[in-house]
Design goal:
Blueprint: H1 3-8, E1 13-21, E2 30-38, E3 44-53, E4 59-63, E5 69-77, E6 86-92, E7 100-108, E8 111-117, H2 118-124, E9 127-132, E10 136-142, E11 145-151, H3 157-163, E12 177-187, E13 196-204, E14 211-221, E15 226-235
Antiparallel strand pairs: 1-2, 2-3, 3-4, 3-5, 5-6, 6-7, 7-8, 9-10, 10-11, 12-13, 13-14, 14-15
Length: about 240
């Protein structure tokens, strides 16, 4: 870090992560930092700020919408197909739901601008999770419009007896839920240098720890926005003995 950036740091802030790449497309190496306030005795970070030191040594700073959390990281890679690095920031919320805050910034018209926000993703992805008779859960997604049916028979008799009558009918209506974004992973499926976004959400039954599976969304850039490309559900297998 050069002296200009060092002098910019508030007294109690420290560098949380740093990556280098060409985020402007001018062929020069830029340096991207996350800075924030962190106590020695705690992993919790506050006042998380994105700082970009361009190749010409000019500096841009951006305060994130969710600026507190755990283990903030930077990933640089081309996620829009223009052969220029974009900036992905991921922060663990630290809550029991295991959710993350995620932001992507791209250099547009001379400025770093947001092109992905996990809050926007969460609000645009609506689901219903309903327990049905005969030991199944129905998951309905609005974007894309799909229905998934998950079997509960592997969950064990104690679990099923609490929920179902002996004839397989529900004792009472039960609704589960799908968590906000729990993981985001840039992946270049086509090996063309452009990353798609693999995003996971937890499918929960009666409470967070009652994990039924994972909603898996793959989004890609369409020239103006990130849009859904593919959606699948991953289920949890039943432990068996092969001996």
């Amino acid at each position: 870090m050069n002296k200009q950036v060092q002098s910019f740091l508030p007294r109690d802030d420290r560098i949380l992560d740093v990556k280098q790449g060409d985020v402007t497309g001018d062929g020069q190496v830029d340096t991207v930092y996350l800075i924030g306030t962190k106590r020695e005795d705690s992993p919790y970070v506050q006042n998380i700020t994105l700082v970009v030191e361009y190749g010409d040594q000019s500096i841009a700073t951006i305060r994130l919408q969710e600026s507190s959390g755990y283990h903030p990281t930077i990933f640089l890679g081309d996620m829009t197909g223009d052969q220029v690095d974009d900036v992905l920031i991921v922060i663990d919320s630290g809550g029991s739901g295991g959710i993350v805050y995620a932001y992507i910034y791209s250099f547009i018209q001379g400025k770093m601008k947001p092109i992905f926000d996990s809050d926007v993703f969460n609000n645009s992805s609506q689901y219903e999770v309903n327990y049905r008779d005969q030991y199944v859960v129905e998951v309905i997604s609005s974007r894309p419009s799909k229905r998934y049916t998950l079997s509960l028979k592997y969950r064990g008799q104690d679990y099923l007896t609490d929920i179902y009558n002996s004839d397989g009918t529900l004792k009472q209506p039960i609704q589960g839920f799908i968590s906000p974004l729990a993981g985001i992973y840039p992946t270049d499926f086509d090996r063309d240098g452009t990353y798609e976004l693999v995003m996971f959400q937890n499918i929960a039954g009666q409470y967070n720890a009652d994990r039924l599976g994972y909603m898996n969304n793959i989004w890609g850039w369409d020239g103006q926005n990130f849009v859904p490309l593919r959606q699948t559900v991953e289920i949890l297998g039943e432990n068996i003995s092969l001996s």
